[in-house]
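Holo prediction. Input below; ligand is pyridoxal-5'-phosphate.
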Amino acid sequence: MKPISRFDDFPAYTPIEPYDVLSARLGIPADQIVKLDANENLYGPSPKAIQTLSSLDDTHIYPDPESRALRGALAGYTGLPVKNLLAGAGADELIDLILRVMIGEGEAVLSFPPTFGMYAFDARLNGAKLIEIPRRDDFSLDLAAVLKLAETFHPKVIFLTSPNNPDGRMITEDEFEAILSLPVLVVLDEAYIEFSDSGLGKSNSRIGEVLRRENLVVLRTFSKWAGLAGLRIGFGAFPEWMLPVLWKVKQPYNVNTAASHAAIASIADQDYLKANVARIITERQRLLTALQKIPFLTPFPSRANFILCKVTGLSAKALQGELMKQGILVRYYDTDLLHDYIRISVGRPQDTDQLVEALQNVSWEKGEYHENRFCSV
Ligand SMILES: Cc1ncc(COP(=O)(O)O)c(C=O)c1O
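Structure of the complex:
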């Protein structure tokens, strides 16, 4: 008898295609692909991180299960005590870990789509009952619905994202306070928070709030601002009561040696990385202005390193396909909540230029879109 898995019917996550696979499929050299589909940092890591990676001498030894050196550096970086900080293989790993320790079979998790897909994925994976409360048209939260459904379902965990993926909107103080006042663990995902800052001044992160709230976790990552997406390194700040159970349940060697060293080097080289973040913020404005001039796109203002656009006059899928043929990758959405939208990551000026040129070559129709008449010129 063939054994069956309880995940046989589980909806699969659609991951992105690696450069080399794409390059072979499109017949375009990898270094000519403009990758604006996964909110990565096209400036790459800091030179200090690269130097550290090229001179590693301890990769034959298992990494420190407590990531002590990294957590020490993170304490300096965030101003939080080491004991409240836990590192993970990306924020992704921590989302799963939090649900593993918090959710019993059938207990409710609340999230606000459209938002980052891993909350729903990990909620299902961990046997939670997923309650999704759609955002309003301007991507704000429907607080009345949240309060009502929280009373009905008594969720164990709520996911908040600021700035939110895919629209780039920040959570407001009122939304934050209303949700934190509920008797539920709130996970505030700040993967893109560095791009919301106005420059060298004070950070917008609410990570310090974790010390004053019993029910707040804040997640951060090195994937975006520090250009380390491929190394899988993130961290969270947790209330003290959660840490003993998190330490017991996490995989012992979850943070690899290379990622840990590179993250420490990135913190040491944060001025360099912040200058790239500032470039991306400047470029975001230039990209927004350029997108506003494309007749079939309606871009939304964003505080993150991407811009969401409503597509009219052709389908978002067709647009994504047409850009891909020109070697430009963007993400498209065709869901109930996001029908015909694309999300474009903010790259370097040359990436914007190539994208805008490709967009200008796209044929579109005011009104109905006809597949057979769609061609690039
Ligand atoms: C909102 C949000 N949180 C977390 C992540 C994942 O972060 P990491 O690369 O650290 O797993 C992403 C990645 O796109 C994201 O959009």
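Residues 19-41+271-367 form a domain with the Aspartate Aminotransferase, domain 1 fold (CATH 3.90.1150.10). That is the main takeaway for now.
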